[in-house]
Design brief:
- With 167 residues, the protein is mainly β.
- It has a single domain (15-163), classed as Nucleoside Triphosphate Pyrophosphohydrolase (Alpha-Beta Complex).
- The protein has 3 helices and 11 strands.
- The protein has helices at residues 55-67, 135-138, 146-149, and strands spanning 9-12, 15-27, 30-36, 42-43, 46-48, 72-86, 89-101, 113-119, 122-130, 141-142, 158-163.
- Strands 1, 2, 3, 5, 6, 7, 8, 9 and 11 form a 9-stranded mixed sheet that branches. A two-stranded parallel sheet has the order 4-10.
- The chain starts with 8 loop residues before the first strand and ends with a strand.
Length: 167
């Protein structure tokens, strides 16, 4: 019997707190993004951290579940305290963003969906999108602040406090 999993995400009135970890996978000037079902935005692959779980361990678990692949979790790039609106809620999210390396055999092509999976009842579609140019803005990468920061990743981990509630 396995223990119940407790994701660190909860609502207090009209506010949601969420602890998320995400992957920055870059190959040949492209970053891997994920679209859930038919959302009008994409995000970096990852998910919620579970109670008692380190964020890098959570990311390895999420990559295995969602991408059906292993990954080498490399260095922490960003920690972010982000405030934004989503589905009528005011969200306070703590996020960790790690650079990862996927195996060479993980599909890479610059057009279309490279992998489609299902997780927690959602259809996930993964695509590689060019970092340079306007493609990340056109496909509505969230969080929005990530678009520019992907172009020049910091040499040391950066801590960010961002408010995107009214953008």
């Amino acid at each position: 019997m396995t223990a119940a999993r407790t994701m660190i995400s909860f609502n207090v009135g009209a506010t949601r707190f969420n602890y998320r970890t995400a992957a920055i996978a870059i190959r040949d000037g492209h970053v891997l993004v994920c679209r859930e079902d038919n959302d009008d935005y994409v995000m970096l692959p990852g998910g919620r951290v579970e109670m008692g779980e380190a964020s890098d361990v959570a990311l390895a678990r999420e990559v295995a579940e969602e991408l059906q692949s292993t990954a080498v979790i490399q260095r922490l790039i960003f920690t972010a305290e982000n405030f934004f609106e989503h589905e009528g809620l005011s969200v306070h999210e703590i996020g960790t963003y790690y650079q990862i390396e996927l195996p060479r055999e993980f599909p890479f092509r610059t057009e279309g969906v490279v992998r489609e999976t299902h997780d927690e009842g959602l259809r996930l579609q993964f695509s590689w999108v060019p970092i340079e140019g306007g493609a990340l803005g056109e496909i509505n990468l969230r969080p929005r602040w990530m678009i520019e920061r992907l172009r020049t990743l910091p040499a040391a981990p950066a801590h960010l406090v961002l408010n995107e509630q009214h953008l």
